[in-house]
Design goal:
Radius of gyration: 22 Å
Shape: elongated
Number of domains: 1
Distance between the termini: 69 Å
Largest sheet: 2 strands, antiparallel
Structural class: mainly alpha
Helix content: 55-70%
Strand order of the largest sheet: 1-2
């Protein structure tokens, strides 16, 4: 029990020391990513063609295309719901496809809800509550079985509120994609800082460009405000905003793990969760480098 208490204390010290640094790095890298994006050129205007389809037919084609996009997103989402790290940790919100189909508002909410009813999420809430009781965190919950149950319920509500608001409702309202789009190729440093930055930047549904991740940051702060309703001796709004930013910074660890997990899996378990997508991307990078080298020599 004493060792567990010491572990919890050390964890809090490390968190307080390193999380501000991680948040600063994420902010700097995200500003660079957002600033480096350039507007897409406008699509070419179609010339008038004799015997062109009537407006009704064009509308029908647009509806068919939209339906096809929705069905494609549905298939990709079902594939994501089978992704797990080490066969245990869900990776439902990770896309190995850089140009994945845009999720509809309903699909975003369903994907967020699916992750929160997974047994893993309940298991983590139980572990967190056990650590909290060992550290006697939030003594207002009490001690013993009743205190453990209350802590477990609070821990689960924290995760549920944060996921549903930050990955479901706000992305649906703000037209932001809540998924982590894994890079999978390039240098280690570039991939690392990319993973860190995705806690504070995300892709817009319509433009596909990077923008501030209002959904994730806002969801963490809102869920922290809601937690004041069921946590005893809450610290007020200052504590709420601080906790929201802390959770956002902690999310960088998850992004880094998701980015490099396929590399670890191929090395240790000889399994490729990307089903060859990483190899294809590396081959394309190599071909571009060779083409650029040949152009310079000429």
């Amino acid at each position: 029990m004493r060792a567990l208490r010491l572990y919890c204390g050390d964890y809090m010290q490390l968190r307080n020391c390193y999380l501000p640094l991680i948040a600063s790095v994420a902010l700097c890298f995200s500003m660079r990513c957002v600033a480096s994006t350039t507007p897409d050129s406008a699509p070419p205007t179609a010339a008038a063609i004799p015997d062109a389809p009537t407006p009704q037919t064009s509308t029908g084609n647009a509806q068919d295309s939209q339906q096809s996009e929705h069905e494609k997103a549905e298939q990709q989402m079902k594939a994501q719901e089978k992704q797990r790290m080490a066969g245990i940790v869900p990776s439902f919100n990770v896309s190995y496809i850089s140009n994945a189909a845009t999720l509809s508002p309903g699909q975003k909410i369903r994907l967020a809800f699916r992750s929160q009813i997974d047994p893993y999420t309940f298991g983590i809430a139980m572990i967190v509550s056990g650590l909290g009781e060992a550290e006697d965190d939030n003594p207002g919950f009490g001690w013993g079985p009743s205190g453990y149950v209350e802590r477990a319920g609070a821990a689960y509500l924290d995760a549920f509120d944060g996921a549903m608001i930050g990955n479901g409702f706000l992305p649906a309202l703000l037209h932001q994609d809540p998924r982590y789009f894994r890079l999978g190729h390039g240098s280690f440093h570039h991939r690392f800082f990319y993973a860190v930055a995705t806690s504070v930047i995300c892709k817009h549904d319509h433009t596909g460009k990077w923008e501030p991740n209002y959904s994730n940051v806002g969801g963490n702060i809102i869920s922290g405000a809601i937690s004041n309703l069921y946590y005893p001796n809450h610290g007020g709004w200052t504590h709420t905003i601080t906790d929201g930013m802390t959770v956002t910074a902690e999310g960088t660890f998850g992004g880094v793990l998701q980015e490099f997990w396929p590399d670890i899996s191929r090395k240790l378990f000889h399994k490729d969760p990307t089903h060859g997508l990483d190899a294809k991307a590396r081959a394309e990078d190599k071909a571009r480098q060779q083409a650029a080298s040949s152009a310079r020599q000429q």
